[in-house]
Amino acid sequence: MILAVVAVALIVGGATVAIVASNNNKGGESTNVGAALPVYGNADLDADIDGDDLNIINKIINKDSGYTIAAYPFADANKDGTIDSKDADVVKKIMNKETTKVYHLNYYNDGAFNVKTKVADTKWPCEDLMVTYNSIMFTMASLGLDEKVVGATSAGKNNFDTTMYAKMMKDVEPLTVSYDAQWNGSLDTSSISAVMTKYKDAHTVFVSGYGQYDAYNESAIEALGCDVVRICESNASRNETLASVLLTGFLTNTLDKAKELTKMYAEIWDECDKIAKTLPGDDKEGFVVVVSTPDTCAGTSNQHNYKCQLAGGSSVVGNDSLNINTWILEDEYNKKIDKILYIVWSNDNNGHFFGNTVKSDKLIKDFTQHEMKVGDDSVWTLTDAWEKKEVYFVYGDFPTAMDILLRGYAMYPDYYGDLYNECIDKLLSMISDGEFKGKGLQFVYSLEELEKKN
Fold first, then answer.
1. pLDDT at 219 over 70
2. Does domain 279-453 have CATH number 3.40.50.1980?
3. How many CA atoms lie within 13 A of 20 on its CB side?
4. Interatomic CA distance for residues 72 and 324, integer angstroms
5. Comparing C-alpha atoms, which of 207, 148, 212 is closest to residue 182?
6. pTM of the shown model
7. Mean pLDDT, residues 273-294 taken together
8. Could you check whether the bond before residue 125 is cis, i.e. omega within 30 degrees of 0?
9. How confident is the model at residue 346 (pLDDT cuts 50, 70, 90)?
10. Residue 444 in contact with residue 409, Cβ under 8 Å?
11. pLDDT-based confidence at residue 233 (cuts at 50, 70, 90)
12. Residue 130 is inside which H or E element, if any?
């Protein structure tokens, strides 16, 4: 249940906590995983809940010097505003893997990259899982939870990559969702109830923090006794996204795997940032990024555009997304466009990248046969970038660190190529027990490559 709005980051003693980079200290060893576990009871704000947290709680109870709730706000494990034996009991239950209620941060972004958080409570641990959307499924698959997912949106249809999510979709129950004019999605509560009736441990649905895209009717879902866990699985903000991986791992008892993934994502994100900051000024690529349909270019307030900027690109469009119409052919725009990036998801509407069965003819026709034309020609095909074949189709269902890397690779292959090859191989070795590793899957296709496929 949602309890209260809190700040994105808490400031304690001048330090930002809860979503910042932290060290997990075990026996003198320090392993940086890039984020703190955003769960109350994690008093020291490292990557897990253990005896160190219990020790801090006991010191606060004993009024040891320097140990207060103000200094350690996440020591309040039961979120009642005081630190006492009840908080110690919650931490002990977690350490002993006993069923309990936990309080944690839920993440809400604005459809771009700004994030707010709320405190939510969830029955722990989460066993039978309900999930929404591709990127949530990707997180679950990355943590090896394919067979624990018992309910999913669009289950039974071909909207998701049948190669990537084959295990997950095998016996899963459907969760239906409807959208309003603003693309706020409401989950059908009767479909959630049906899953909860069939699976006694199905009391949690994991949804995206992207606006309220997945669960606009969150309060109605909570009223069923189903906890809503909202994570920033693909947001363009580093710390919240990394913390979301740890949160998912903790709630599903896969925290060790989540630490491994978080550490890898943090390293990729930081290396991409380093590359982007060292690109020579005269190598800056002017880009336009296309999302979903080729009629609109995403503006700089859109997270898909922002991820390209994080990779070092220079956006041709302004803050607002623009319908291309004929403005793109005016020299002041056309001459600035070095690269056209088309972000493609692994569903039936675009192409099955993970299965490496990209529908090349479908993707190209999206550009060449849509309604935005000058005479008989597509607007896109009349641009200098198309003429030079500087058009790239980029897989869009990876976590943000990989999203940035793929965009960087499309724009600057000479700078990002080595990192791309290394990290794709490493990621594929971690997903679904490595069954995708070594299959030569591609996640960035050039126009030239797709034309050859035709």
1. yes
2. yes
3. 10
4. 51
5. 212
6. 0.89
7. 87
8. yes
9. low
10. yes
11. confident
12. strand 129-131
